[in-house]
Amino acid sequence: MTTELRTVSKDELDAWYTALEWAFGGLKESADERRLWHELVDLDRSLGVWDGDRVVGSLGTFALGVSVPGGAVVPAAGITMVHVASTHRRRGLLRRMMRRALDDYREAGEPLALLTASEPDIYGRFGFGAATRRLSATVDSTRVRVNAPAGTDDIALSVADPVAAAPRCEELYARLVPRRPGMLERRPGWERLPLLDPPGEREGASARRCLLAERDGELVGYARFALRPAFRAAGPEGAVVVHDLEAATPAAYAALLRQLMEMDLMSTVVLRDLPVDAPLLHLVSDVRRCDLRLQDRLYARPLDVGAALAARSYATELDVVIDVADDVCPGNTGRWRLSGGPGGAVCARTGDAADLALPVRVLGAACLGGASLTALAGAGLVVEERAGALAAASVAFTSPVAPWLPHTF
Ligand SMILES: CC(=O)SCCNC(=O)CCNC(=O)[C@H](O)C(C)(C)COP(=O)(O)OP(=O)(O)OC[C@H]1O[C@@H](n2cnc3c(N)ncnc32)[C@H](O)[C@@H]1OP(=O)(O)O
After folding, report:
1. Which of 1, 177, 287, 334 is surrounded by the fewest CB atoms within 10 Å?
2. Catalytic residue positions?
3. Strand 133-140 vs strand 235-236: parallel, antiparallel, or unpaired?
4. pTM exceeds 0.80
């Protein structure tokens, strides 16, 4: 088999994307969705594999900015739209594309590569670790109440058209990005992502609506949701499907959640994408009736260990030598001294003895402050070479706000 790996041109983008759709089960995205992804993808760094004139592999790249602990937004290469045709699978094409992509990103100087995975077992071998998780909740709103904090009743709620309300929602979203690691800054065009609402993907639900929360005329929160009505012999049993819920204050969050749980004719509220430290967990009267589920979400890979670890701040002062193993990007292999704290950090090569030893994917999992180094050590993924180093580093790496990616890409 002779195949050619190269970047995709604008003229080839449609065929490239159609091949990708087939690999995802022939899924046809709406014209709006296809247009948006075409506009957002970074063509100079998006790859295809051709067998003759047929596209048999794809790997797209987005230029992203991701929030890290401490509030900085760091450039990152977002890997997306990966497929290999079923006729060409398991012959190393993904490995070839990934090799080329990671080399390109390292050359461009981005400290991190990011992706969301169709299956969690694919990308660890390439140095990616699960950096954020998402919680989903299916709340029995006939039985569960919101124990709203003081100030909730001072929030004014109104229903708006999501498109008309988008500029105000985006302005609030931009203010929230530095407050939570894992969120992506909205680079031009990305503001259209939360407004995509193709009828073919509504699964019986209505078009999206937007609920605005204001305090003294200032927007302090919003939720975008749809209603899925159902009328049974025993009575109405509709569902409120929440697509996003963002709030700048506890009162705004509680007011929005309470409103979503008190919709007439609805008996369930489905929230598919919550941070693992969502206030909902502490606001509901009965967490057992929320049917919580945990999943992996954003995978991160340090491309340059020194730059990736120095880009964030740390919860406590730390000075640790980390021995990194990275057989995919060997430039990262070896010992790094990481010194810093809440004000920032430096990370440089050192000849000193290691305090901790770990594979690069562990740093991917821990770099946004989500996965605990102690927990990873419990799985045998971190080796403590100096007594006490693990506990100290584990505390320093933790983020007080759980990292979270609110949407896929
Ligand atoms: C970021 C994103 O876009 S996620 C979307 C990923 N795409 C999909 O899920 C679409 C359907 N699947 C596919 O298109 C293909 O099966 C791919 C892209 C996942 C894999 O492509 P292939 O060319 O077959 O992979 P390749 O032969 O290079 O395999 C590389 C390694 O990954 C492993 N691997 C490949 N696919 C999988 C999988 N689904 N689960 C676990 N391991 C996998 C291989 O066993 C191989 O392991 P090894 O080299 O360590 O022994």
Report:
1. 1
2. 123, 409
3. unpaired
4. yes
